[in-house]
Amino acid sequence: MKRQTLVMGAMAAVILAAMGCNGGTTPTAVTPTSTPASVLAESPTPAPTIAATATLTLPPSPTAAATLPPEVRIGVVYPLSGRLEQWGQEGSPFIDMAQADINSSPEAVAAGLHFSFVVRSSETTEEGALAAARDLVENEGVQVIVGLPTSGELTGAIGYLTEHHVAVVSSASTSPQPGLRQPDTVFRTAPPELYLARTLAELALNQGYRKAAVIYRTDGWGEYYAAEIAAKFQSQGYPTAQVSIVPTHPHVGDYAAEVAQLSARVAELGADDQMVVFMAVWEGEDLNILHHAAQDPTLSRVRWLAALLGPSVLTGTFPGPPAQDLPDARDFALAHNLWSVESHPPVNELLQRLWTQAKSELGEEPRFEHVYMYDALQIAARAVRAAGSTDGDAVAAVIPAAAQGYDAVTGVIRFDDNGDRASGDLAFHGLFPIDGGFEYRHFAYYDSATESFQLLAPPAPRPVEFCPEC
After folding, report:
1. Whole-angstrom distance, CA of residue 118 vs CA of residue 381
2. What residues contact 411, with CB distance under 8 A and at least 6 apart?
3. Would the N or C end of the chain have less CB density within 10 A of its end CB?
4. pTM recorded for the entire structure
C-alpha cells in the first residue's frame, strides 16, 4: 500500500514568505505571483510508522525526578496579535494538543511531571518578539522557549536569547539569513531553503549531471540558493557558472541580456548531456527567462531545474506587471524536464488526529506550518526530561539527541551545526500534459531517512491534502 503524503502548495508557500521564512527578512506583505518560498509538500518511500500519540521515549537523566520541579514551565512566543494574528491564532489548537500529549505520555506521568506552556504574543514584530522573550525570561523565569516561527521574530530576539543562554526550538525555516546560521542555543524544525537547494543539486548529481550553471536573483534568497547549488557541484570537482538578474519587484523585467550571458557561460562549459541549468528566481521572472532560453540553441540542448515552479509555468501566462503571454516558455519547460523541489512530509495517524481536531476547533482548515510547532514543543519537552533540568545550556546540549529519538509528525528530524534542520522528505514535481492542458505531478521522491532518491514511472499525482489554498 502506498504511503499517503501531503503537499502544501504555492499559497501556503506565500504564507511562509510573508512571515519572512525564506528570504531571511522581517515579514512583509507579499502576493502569490511574486514571492518565493519553500513549497512545502514534504516525501517518498516508506518511513517509520508513527503512532497515534507521540510519546517522550528518550530516557530521562537518573536525577531528573529529583532535579525537575513537578511543574515544568516552557515559554511559547507566537504571533497571536499584529499583522499575522489570524495565522497565529490557528496555531493555538496545536499548542494545546502538544501540551495534552506531552503531559499524558507514560514518561511524564511516571516522573510525576506536568508541563505548562507560558504563552506570549510576539505581535508579529521584531520588537514584540524581543519584549515577549524578555518577559518570559525575566518575569517568568523561563529558560526554554518554543515558537518564534518567522525569521523576523528570531532576528529581533536572538541576541537576547543567546546572551541569556536560553534554549530555543523554533518552528521557523530561516537558513538563508547569515545572522541565524551560526552555532548557538537556537534550533529550527522546518526544512530550510538551503536544505532544499542542496537536495535539488544532489538529484542532478544522482542523475549524472557533472556541470552546472545557475541563474539567480540578487536578493538574499537567490544568492544563497545559487551558492549552495554551486558548492555541491564544486565539492565534487565539477565546474559551475553563475549569472545574476537584478530583481525589479513588483514588476517583472526583461532578462534577454542575462539569458545571453547564461548561454555564453554554458557554451564555455559545454552544452552536452552532462550540463544542467538551475533557476533561483521568482514567478514571472522564470517565464521571461524560459521564453528567451527557448530561442537560444545552446540553452535548448541542456537540462533545466528550478527552485520554484508557480502557476504561470503551467499556463505560459503571468498577470504582471507587465502581463506576459509566453506559451513557448511553458513548452520549453515541458521539453526540458523542468522540475522543482518541495517538502513532502508523511501523512500518518498522528497528523490526521491533529488536523481533525484543529479543524474542528477552528471551523476551517488550518495551515500546515503549525505542525512544525507541535514537533518543536515535543522536542523541547523531551530535551528538558533528558537534561533533568530547565537550564538553557543543559537543554540545548541535548536537543539534537532528543530530536533524533522522536518520531516527529513531519518525519525524521536532524539538525546541522547551526541548528537548522538538515532532514525532511522531499518531492520533485514538473509539468505533465493532461486533457489538452497541464498539471504538476511528482517525478521523483527523496527519502531523508535513507538519503536516497526514487524516480517514478509513471509520474505520481501531486496530492493537495491539508492545503486549503491548493
Report:
1. 13
2. 42, 43, 47, 345, 346, 423, 424, 425, 448, 449
3. N
4. 0.83
What is the residue whose three cell numbers read 546541522? 416
Q: How confident is the model at residue 117 (pLDDT cuts 50, 70, 90)?
A: very high
| DSSP H or E run through 258 | helix 256-269
Alpha carbon distances (Å) from 203 to 13, 278, 279, 345, 445? 22, 12, 15, 18, 10
Q: In this structure, is residue 80 part of a structural domain?
A: yes
pLDDT of 187-223, one tens digit each?
Answer: 999 999 999 999 999 999 999 999 999 999 999 899 9
Which structural domain range is residue 79 located in? 64-191+347-404
Q: What is the mean pLDDT of the chain?
A: 86
* Element holding 400 (H helix, E strand): helix 392-404
Which region among 15-24, 175-184, 271-280, 337-346 has the lowest average model confidence (pLDDT)?
15-24
In the sheet that 71-78 helps form, which strands lie side by side, from edge to edge? 114-121, 71-78, 144-147, 167-170, 186-188
pLDDT tens figures, 278-328: 999 999 999 999 999 999 999 999 999 999 999 999 999 999 888 999 999
Q: Say how many Å lie between the first and final Cα of the chain, rounded.
A: 25
Q: Is residue 119 part of a domain?
A: yes
Q: How far apart are the C-alpha atoms of 332 and 334, rounded to whole Å?
A: 5
And the C-alpha cell for 174?
530561516
Domain count across the chain: 1
What's the angle, vertex CA 21, arms to CA 404 and CA 366, rounded to 5? 80
